[in-house]
Specification:
By secondary structure, this protein is an all-beta fold. The protein has strands at about 1-25, 35-60, 65-75, 85-95, 110-125, 135-140, 150-155, 160-175, 180-200, 215-230.
């Protein structure tokens, strides 16, 4: 038995914000702006993000005993610089139903015995802004009528996808017509390119208070362990 999936995803985010106010109302009941004597703050901004993804998955099983699945997707994310914006992520997994083999048919106490394992690579863009790699300037730092800007974000061409590689292997079992069920599983997750804010020195545009930082892929982390599950009716 074969199962094939192919798909395309597109995410386009646009957010516009406008805020303004005036105070000191002249006549009650009139809420038009000219009816207020003092002009207040007026500000606005716009945010944009786009994600373009292509994905596929193929699953195969033979006689309900042997199973294999593979997936592949390609993601492009505007949060990253053009040269590192697109990345491939994939996974592969398999399972074997031993209880359906001929050599298990003389053991009626076992109604389920399955070995399974999988490995895959995933991407993560959480924790960074829409414009993490760009050099940005903050407007509105004017001196009376003279315009002024301040640097708010240092350019960072090196930031890229944070990736995790996941492996697991398990045995599942069911005994006495499903009255006892359980599993034992080993897992390991390794995350590469952890994204952290790194303070910059004065020579690189940092401030005396360490206010300027650059997001960098500077760390690796892993989680591993064994999980056991058992239930009975």
């Amino acid at each position: 038995n074969f199962s094939v999936l192919a798909g395309h995803e597109n995410y386009d985010y646009n957010y516009n914000n406008f805020f303004g106010n005036r105070s000191s109302q002249i006549f009650d009941g009139n809420i038009e702006l000219p009816n207020f004597a003092i002009a207040g703050t007026i500000t606005s901004y716009e945010d944009n993000q786009r994600i373009e993804s292509y994905l596929s998955r193929v699953s195969y099983d033979y006689a309900g005993k042997y199973f294999i699945t593979g997936s592949l997707r390609r993601d492009g994310n505007s949060r990253f610089k053009k040269e590192v914006r697109e990345e491939n992520f994939w996974s592969v997994g398999g399972a074997w139903r031993l209880d359906k083999e001929a050599f298990m048919q003389n053991i009626p106490q076992v109604n389920l015995l399955k070995l399974r394992s999988s490995y895959g690579k995933l991407g993560n863009d959480a924790g960074i802004s829409f414009y993490a790699y760009q050099g940005l300037y903050a407007l509105g730092n004017n001196n009376a009528s003279e315009p002024g800007v301040l640097q708010s974000n240092l350019q960072n061409d090196s930031i890229k996808w944070e990736t995790s590689k996941n492996f697991d292997a398990a045995i599942e079992f069911g005994l006495f017509k499903g009255r006892i069920n359980g599993s034992f599983e080993y897992y390991k997750k390794t995350t590469d390119g952890l994204i952290f804010s790194v303070p910059q020195p004065l020579s690189n545009g940092g401030t005396t208070g360490g206010g300027y930082t650059i997001l960098k892929n500077v760390g690796q982390m892993y989680n591993k362990g064994i999980e056991a599950h058992l239930d009975a009716d």
